TrEMBL record:
One family name in Pfam for this protein: FecCD
Localization (cell): Cell membrane
Superkingdom of this protein's organism: Bacteria
Annotated source species: Sporosarcina jeotgali
Keyword Transcription: no
Species lineage: Bacteria, Bacillati, Bacillota, Bacilli, Bacillales
Protein name as annotated: Iron ABC transporter permease
Annotated family: Belongs to the binding-protein-dependent transport system permease family. FecCD subfamily.
InterPro entries named in the record: ABC_BtuC-like (IPR037294), ABC_transptr_permease_BtuC (IPR000522)
Keywords: Cell membrane, Membrane, Transmembrane, Transmembrane helix, Transport
Primary location group: membrane
Length: 346
C-alpha cells in the first residue's frame, strides 16, 4: 500500500540504528519501573505485596490494595499523555525544521488553554469531552497562526522566527486568558488547578476519552515518518523524491495538534516533554524519524510518569503538579540547546 504522503518515492532502506534494541529494551524496563513507582508512591506509600493484591487479587480489599487500584488509571493516563506529548514534539520539530520546537514553546498549549477558558467562562462547560474539542480547535488555530507569522518574509519559516512568533503569540494569548479570568472568580477556581498541568485527575473516563485521539495521532505520525526524513533535506529535494510536501505538513501537523490538544485538554498545559523526549532519542538513535517518533512516545511516557512520581515525593504529604517538575527540568535544557545549536534548522 502506498504511503498517502508520498507520491512516487521508492521504498527507503530499512536499517535499525545502532543500539536500537538496547534502547528499546531499556525503555520498556523504565516504563515498567515508572509504572510501579507511580502505583507505589503518593500521600500513602504501599509495598510490593499491596501492589500485587491491588492488581491481581480483586477479592482483597485492604486499604493499600484499594489505593493501588485507584492509582492504576492515573498511571495509564500519565503514560498516554507522555507518549502523546513526546510524539507531538517530534512532529513539530520535523514539520518546522526547528530543533527547539515544542507545543509549549510555539504557543500551542496556550492557544488550547485560551479556548478552554472561554468555554468555561462563556459556555459553562465542565467535562473532559467538552474540554477536548475546544482545546483541539485552539491548538490548531494557534499552530496555523504561529507558522503563518513565522513564514512571513523572504527567508520563510526559520527556527528563530518560529520561536519568536510562538513566544509573542503565547504572551498575547496568556494576557487574554488573564483578562477573562480576573473578573470571574468562579472560573478562576475551576481553571487554576488545570492551568499548572497535572495528571492527578486521570480517571478511566479520561483514559477512554483520550485513547481515540492518541491512536489517530500516532497513526498519522508513523505514516508521516519516512516522508519527514526526506523533508529534512529541504523542500526541493523532498519534492524531487516524490514527497507531496504541502500534504505532508498538513498530515503531520494534524497528528501533532490531535496529540497535543487532547493531552492539554485533559491534563493541562504540560511543557517541555516533547523537547526532552525527542532530543534524547535523536542523540542516541540518530535523525531517522521512523525510529525517533515511536521511541519518543516511550521516552515521553517515561519522563512524564517519573516526573509525576517526583512531584508526589517532593510535595508529600500533598504533591507538586507535574507541570512544575517538567518546567524545572526542561527550561535549562532549552537554554542549553539554544546556546549550543544556535537554533540551527534540522
Amino acid at each position: 500500500m502506498t504511503n498517502p504522503v508520498i507520491a512516487k518515492q521508492k521504498p527507503l532502506n530499512f536499517h535499525f540504528p545502532k543500539y536500537f534494541w538496547a534502547v528499546l529494551a531499556g525503555s520498556l524496563v523504565l516504563i515498567a519501573l515508572s509504572s510501579i513507582a507511580s502505583l507505589a508512591y503518593g500521600s500513602r506509600s504501599v509495598g510490593l505485596q499491596e501492589i500485587m493484591d491491588g492488581l491481581f487479587h480483586p477479592e482483597v480489599h485492604s486499604y493499600g490494595a484499594d489505593v493501588v487500584r485507584k492509582r492504576v488509571s492515573r498511571t495509564v493516563f500519565s503514560l498516554f499523555c507522555g507518549a502523546a506529548l513526546g510524539v507531538s514534539g517530534a512532529l513539530m520539530q520535523s514539520v518546522t525544521r526547528n530543533p527547539i520546537a515544542d507545543p509549549s514553546i510555539l504557543g500551542v498549549n496556550t492557544g488550547a488553554s485560551l479556548f478552554v477558558v472561554c468555554g468555561i467562562a462563556f459556555l459553562h462547560i465542565s467535562t473532559a469531552s467538552q474540554y477536548i474539542w475546544l482545546a483541539l480547535a485552539g491548538a490548531a488555530i494557534t499552530a496555523a497562526f504561529v507558522f503563518g507569522i513565522g513564514s512571513l518574509g523572504r527567508s520563510g519559516a526559520t527556527p528563530i522566527k518560529l520561536v519568536l512568533a510562538g513566544a509573542a503569540t503565547s504572551a498575547a494569548l496568556s494576557s487574554l486568558v488573564l483578562a477573562i479570568l480576573i473578573p470571574r472568580s468562579n472560573v478562576m477556581d475551576q481553571f487554576r488547578f488545570w492551568q499548572v498541568g497535572s495528571v492527578g485527575s486521570g480517571s478511566w473516563s479520561a483514559v477512554s476519552t483520550f485513547a481515540p485521539f492518541l491512536i489517530v495521532g500516532l497513526f498519522l505520525a508513523i505514516i508521516s515518518g519516512p516522508a519527514l526524513n526526506a523533508l529534512a533535506l529541504g523542500d526541493d529535494v523532498a519534492t524531487s523524491l516524490g514527497v507531496r510536501t504541502g500534504f505532508l505538513r498538513v498530515i503531520a501537523a494534524l497528528g501533532a495538534v490531535l496529540l497535543c490538544g487532547a493531552s492539554t485538554a485533559l491534563a493541562g498545559p504540560i511543557g517541555f516533554i516533547g523537547l526532552l523526549a525527542t532530543h534524547v532519542m535523536r542523540l542516541i538513535l540518530g535523525p531517522d524519524l521512523r525510529f525517533v517518533i515511536p521511541m519518543s512516545a516511550l521516552a515521553g511516557a517515561i519522563i512524564l510518569t517519573f516526573s509525576d512520581v517526583a512531584g508526589r515525593l517532593l510535595g508529600s504529604p500533598g504533591e507538586l503538579e507535574v507541570g512544575v517538575i517538567t518546567a524545572f527540568i526542561g527550561a535549562p535544557l532549552l537554554i542549553l540547546l539554544a546556546m549550543k545549536s544556535k537554533v540551527r534548522s534540522l
